[in-house]
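Supplementary Methods S3. Input chains for the assembly prediction are listed below.
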Amino acid sequence: MADKSLPEFKGTPEQEKKLLEVIEQNKDLPGALLPVLHEAQEIYGYLPIEVQQKVADGLNVSLSEVYGVATFYSRFSLTPKGKHKISVCLGTACYVKGADKVLAEVEKKLGIKSGECTSDGLFSIDSCRCVGACGLAPVMMIDEEVYGKLTPAEVDKILDKYIAEEGGSN
Amino acid sequence: METVHLKINNIPVEVPQGYTILQAAKQANIEIPTLCYLKDINCIGACRVCMVEAKNRRGLLAACVYPAEEGLEVFTNTPAVIKSRKTTIELLLSNHKKKCLSCLRNNNCELQKLALEYGVDEDRFQSEEPIYEIDDLSPYIVRDNNKCINCMRCVAACKNVQSISVIGAIRRGFDAHVGSAFDKSLDNAPCVGCGQCVVSCPVGALTEKPQEDKVWDAIADPTKKVLFFTAPSIKATLGEAFDMPIGTNVEGKMAAAIKRLGENVSAFNMDFTADLTIIEEANELVERIKNGGTLPMFTSCCPGWVKFVEHYYPEMLPHLSTCKSPQAMFGAVLKGYYCQKNNIDPKDVFVVSVIPCTAKKFEATRPQLRSDENYDDVDVALTTRELARMIKRAGIDFTNLPEEDFDAPFNKATGGGAIFGATGGVLEAALRTAARILDGDFKKVDFEEVRGPEEVRVATYEVAGVTVKVAVTSGLGNARKLVEKVKSGEADYQMIEVMACPGGCINGGGQPTRSDSVSNYVDYKALRSKALYDYDKNAEFRVCDDSPVIKMIYDEFFEAPGKEKAHHYLHTSYTARDKYYK
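Predicted structure tokens for the full assembly:
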């Protein structure tokens, strides 16, 4: 049962200062863990072990409790998000129209799984439930852009466009 | 005390206010089945096995958390209740790895017991079985989450009792499971190895790391001498593995059984090195008091406690006695003194300790437990459960065995050594000896003040003009509170005994698994402790320095407590560890 390798942590002193302030403001409140994790995610974009340890230290709770809360809510992410955030809708309408194949194609194309980020930090994949565009099912969003009536082949083309914009290499 | 009146299955009962339906039912001699409930440890009403029906109440009620109310009429066995329980158990079994035949908890599993009682169809619900990697990297505990039913008893034991919280609930829904932060192996987490999670587990998801096979291999090797020794508490608990009443002293049968495991096997009495620990520790205490050493001195015989200090209070390490634990001392005595005296190459000796505890398995792997760099002092540390399994496999009819003595020369020990197995015992034995060092005519032997179930016991003694203030606690949650008091200067004791497990070694993480009927309704800790205190009361010698084996070993080998040789073999050092990692 080897420990999973995680991307290298690149927190800045400014981020740390902000986090410590948030902990200081909240540490005497009951149930401080949840709001502090929300803020921590805002500051760092995700909740790596280094950040969770600082939260555990600051609030005097165990790391396993912090990790338990961080993994319970889908709002929190343990991995960094990419420059382009891809979100594939797995809501009912999209699902019956083959959203699973869309997600599989995105994963295959980028070589990462849903919830992960490419090593160059350009793309991250997530799934979501209904973006309110069921008429266009199946749907995915890249950043704020909505792409509808997708097929795996089309997914390929769309992603190629983004990859080309970023300098060609995947 | 305010009471309430209610009826359970038409039987009127009167119980104190604040009782749950579960407790009230027991008063009417009805045991409502439970799974996630564990007295004093976990009470979260999560598993829904203890459901009961009540008049004028909608739906079913969880008996473990629902308060007994005035006038309540409860029914524990209606068709609706039975159907609900049965479905719950079938759902639990839907993604439970049902490899019962090879499970260490076979015939001793709460889920299996309930499945049989409720006549469930184990395959009624076919579910996708999650595949979790088995975590067997630590030297003490194995976690197989494929068998876990998410009752959270282990999590509660680790958090509520031990205040460590090195495991917790991770993710949600079908992905919910128990593990360490970032799903790291227990081996790479700041776990102290006490094993309270293991003895809290109702199923086979948590077990000790089994090592009997290594011992069987050594017994089968004619070039090896296999030297067993059994910790003080084992005599008070091993009988339970053979369905004997809780608190039966089986010392004689245990010695007889071990000797029957093989021709090359010897059975020694670890109470002897408990005595030896006291001689060294009492002298260390008197030295520290007289020479202005670091005080208070904490006992160091409990490896869970030692690792707790190393991880969570490394700044307090100078407070730990430098004495090795009785297990560690015995390993050093056997591979040092015994081998030299009998002209045996230590490589031909295989040392097996039988201990109440999973943390001792870790202790046996510590680099400090190598008196000689070429070998480990203790080759294998077996829990009480593993010894019981070996005795069963060897076909030994344990309950009908004659009582025999341990093997010479390590056969005799004192009552002071025996009570090491109960909380307060180490301190009491040390007081008996320390008082004598200070005042040769000191007669008091029973120090009742430091015995008992209270979370912290405190006492002050005056001996030969010296005031000795002592404290005892067990359970690491209680220990943490005491350490904080010492750090803040609020507590001014000279000596503090700490055992990681509540009640001491008799409730260790390696002791025979208790059924929930015992855990929830029987004061098993008191019964097991009583066996040791009765043993002490009737012992030939009660003060550790009176043991003839102690006299022999200092005359022949160690010369005097704290001397160079004693220091090399009987004292140790500690390692400051990280709060978040191994």
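The domain at 3-77 of chain B is CATH 3.10.20.740 (Ubiquitin-like (UB roll)). The first helix of chain B runs from residue 21 to 27.
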